[in-house]
Amino acid sequence: MKNIMVTGGCGFIGANFIRYLLSESDFTGNVINVDSLTYAGNPENVADIEERYQDRYLFIKADICDMAGMNRTFGKHEIDTICNFAAESHVDRSIVAPDAFIQTNIVGTFNLLEAARSQQNRMIRFHHISTDEVYGSLGKDGYFTETTPYKPNSPYSASKASSDHLVRAYYKTYDLPITISNCSNNYGPYQFPEKLIPLMILNALEGKPLPVYGDGRHVRDWLYVRDHCTAIWTIMKNGRIGEMYNIGGDSEMENIAIVKMICDILDEMNELSNNRSRRELITFVKDRPGHDRRYAIDFTKLNKELNWRPEASLETGIRDTIQWYVDNKKWVERVKSGEYRQWIKTHYA
Ligand code: NAD
Ligand code: TYD
Known about the structure:
The protein is α/β, with parallel strands linked by helices.
């Protein structure tokens, strides 16, 4: 692999992956980060990388829905590998406005597949990032495996499921060298504060209400983003072509328990005024429509075939994440105030 195109590299996981690839992994080639900079794309997430790896890192502001543009980029930069993170990623937004999810997640992925197919002789690997949400919801018991039938329940998960099917079909039909990974809920540095963990951390820091949907007893498996990055790189290097791999954090927990954990760690670090516990900020709100009750991942295949397992425990991962948000006040302020959007507007005018 010489030239890896990472799409969505200014988002949460993409930025962490690029940082891991260039500063920690054994990869010695170039990274071409293609991102259209939606509300979730923040160039500040990779500003240090841009500075440190000027000779190996290139940012291109482009939309994966632009087929001609993708074809040009593939040719010009001799792309031999792709890791596709670019997506609309928030379930709540997909319920309110599904259109962009269909465009980016389905049509965008299709464009990338077509661009890769048109230069297939050079393609070493097309790795597609997906989610465990494609499998639908579990009851009290059981785990998602790679053979669990797809049964997506939200416009987001349905769009991701569609893109997975297209990726797999390009392997079956055209022999495109693909792999797909389906992971559980990520958390860690640089996550946009609309998702559960960063939203709760920032609200709890400010003493604002902590909105928990429904009865709060929905279960997610939590994957520390660095562990996700090591899993992706392992699969890209050694995963079998045409295969899907589940990635999990071995950390199932009810939402309410996670929120209480965040409150307690923050109380331990600094008290709210009047000695109030942050747990008092928890507010149960109306449930999300079609809210999946439980996700749980069986990652035996990845463990047995490629000897991967997560390193972070939920407790250490959450502590490190809280510390990151506390230490990176400037990033938080610029994201919350929308200043980062202003910078993008003037920079790319
Ligand atoms: P994110 O929303 O933080 O970032 C998405 C990035 O994609 C942003 O930088 C955005 O600007 C870019 N993007 C969006 N539309 C684009 C387009 N049309 N063209 C080019 N770039 C575009 O998302 P994330 O949380 O980092 O998720 C990354 C991937 O991982 C997604 O495919 C998501 O479905 C998947 N995933 C995420 C989680 C999670 O917990 N965050 C869990 C499972 C799977
Ligand atoms: P989220 O971070 O949106 O990820 P996903 O929907 O992809 O799992 O939500 C994680 C869980 O937290 C999910 O069960 C919904 C719940 N949730 C809340 O209770 N309150 C909130 O404010 C948010 C954003 C999520």
